[in-house]
Design goal:
Elements: H1 3-22, E1 30-34, E2 52-59, E3 64-71, H2 75-88, E4 92-98, E5 102-108, E6 113-121, E7 124-131
Antiparallel strand pairs: 1-2, 2-3, 3-7, 4-5, 5-6, 6-7
Amino acid sequence: MTRSSMSRLLVAALCVLLVASCGGETKTGVEFGEGSLPDGWPESFPIPANAVIGSTLIDYDSGRLEAEFRVSAPLETLAQYFDLNLTNSGYAVDSSSGDSSTWTIEFRSDDDSGNVVIQSFGEVSSAVVRILGDG
């Protein structure tokens, strides 16, 4: 093998190695978190100013995002907040119903759909938001 052939072979091998390592890693499975919004959370989604972010989830396989918000407010107040602010943020509210212990709101936009399930725990209410990302 000549020096020129060996150089070309080395360059070709390096090119193959570089191309193989350029592919971005695709995440799969489920990632759990707490205390901050999951990556990919829609910027336009309304979050109460006094909300504390609890557990979060990213399901890379289905594209689902989930976050729990704890708010010092009655269930009815939190349901009214989401009904009004989802609409003001460009979401359509398809349904909003419940009782004194649990309230469910179904919503959609051009980019996302999902639901908010609000539960009352005395002085604190918990809103679990699921965003499906399928419009």
